[in-house]
Amino acid sequence: MALQVEKTTSGREYKVKDMSKADFGRLEIELAEIEMPGLMSCRAEFGSSQPFTGAKITGSLHMTIQTAVLIETLTALGAEVRWCSCNIFSTQDHAAAAIARDSASVFAWKGETLQEYWWCTERALDWGPGGGPDLIVDDGGDATFLIHEGVKAEEEYVKSGKLPDPSSTDNVELQIVLTIIRDGLKVDPKKYTKMKERLVGVSVGSTTGVERLYQMQANGSLLFPAINLNDSITKSKFQNLYGCGHLLLAELMRATDVMIAGKVAVVCGYGDVGKGCAAALKRAGASVIVTEIDPICALQAAMEGFQVLTLEDVVSEADIFVNTSNKYIIMDEHKRNMKSKAIVCNIGHFNDLGYTPEGPGQPSFVMSCLFTNQVLAQLELWKERTTEKYEKKVYVLPKHLEEKAAALHLGKLGAKLTKLTKEQADYVGVPVEGPYKPPHYRY
């Protein structure tokens, strides 16, 4: 694979599909900024103090127009940024071109092969001899995974002289990762160890990435502090509940041109993603049925007016099926019993939250909520880098920062907060300025 890093006239590295699309990307970034008030408020509040001065940040997250606004918020606060996508199909090439030309190193294009994908991930982590990055913005957890696998291989190499063996696994992606690490060991046997020693922490915003973190914490292999943003309210609610419903309807209309009103739709799973999809289908005029294994979720669905049945009860009657819950839900035997021209959809982290080769992403306002959390999490890790406040564990975003992220979006919606008096705050046992929710609160 003969991929070569390119450089802008200012010397910034990049690899994108078509730099001629940069002007179009810049136009769309400016439009998205209007709908991303949380990020723009972060720039207004923190920009003058440049809190990220000296910070090298690597991002592994869908390289879209909305992500471009996140990247340029990080650079506006003083960070130096290198970025790759966390998905081979989700990159918007005009967004990648604009960022590569104007503000940060980008290694991403739509339709990467798996080998190209991992090459891009390696480039985003490669800060040269200094051993950066200091911080990682991760989504699926692949950048974090590559460092952990690299450190493990380097430790084994020091102990026994043994190189990673790609043929030791049948997993194609792991074969690629082990090949990258093996070849890197021959050049710099401490490459990933130096990264580990420099890293302040990582913030992760997807179910898959967070599951990996908790697994590493459980087995004692987590190498640096991590903030779990997947379980923040403004992620689990705003992105899953509101964003996924929007995305489902947009994809249904784009891909099938189907009239949703009057159809019978089955939503498998009534977690946040399922709630969003069920509500969106109901608003569009469908008769919605929910399937569930969790009695609490089933009760919620029933109390909100949805029938709760099994897939077998309704498989021959429904027009639209939406899996939001798990694998092995809609099987071949179900499909054989479906109506002619029934539509089967898959959404949730099992399908990278609905990103498709040509389909729409989530609304800018929804993404602003999650990405504002990313900025605040990165600021928190960087601010506390010398205090030992964060150990090599997984943390949730402190509630006062979640509430700040929410508050930064209220003005755009025309909402005004009521202020508590000191007497009222004391009566309910909260500070006047918050946080108003306990650390464990999610709903």
If you had to describe this structure to a student in words, what would you say it looks like?
- The chain has helices at 22-34, 37-46, 65-76, 93-102, 114-125, 142-160, 172-187, 191-198, 207-218, 233-256, 272-283, 295-303, 311-314, 332-336, 364-383, 399-410, 422-428; strands at 6-7, 13-14, 56-60, 80-84, 105-107, 135-138, 201-204, 226-228, 264-268, 287-291, 307-308, 320-323, 343-346, 394-396.
- The protein is of the alpha/beta class and 443 residues long.
- The strands form three sheets. The protein has a seven-stranded parallel sheet with strand order 5-4-3-6-7-8-14, with helices on both faces.
- A hairpin with a 5-residue loop joins strand 1 and strand 2.
- Helix 10 crosses helix 11.
- The longest helix is centred in the middle third of the chain and has 24 residues, at 233-256.
- The termini are far apart.
- Residues 349-359 have low confidence and may be disordered.
Outline of the structure:
The chain has helices at residues 22-34, 37-46, 65-76, 93-102, 114-125, 142-160, 172-187, 191-198, 207-218, 233-256, 272-283, 295-303, 311-314, 332-336, 364-383, 399-410, 422-428; strands spanning 6-7, 13-14, 56-60, 80-84, 105-107, 135-138, 201-204, 226-228, 264-268, 287-291, 307-308, 320-323, 343-346, 394-396. It has 443 residues and is α/β, with parallel strands linked by helices.
Which key phrases capture this entry?
alpha/beta, Rossmann fold, 2 domains, seven-stranded parallel β-sheet, globular
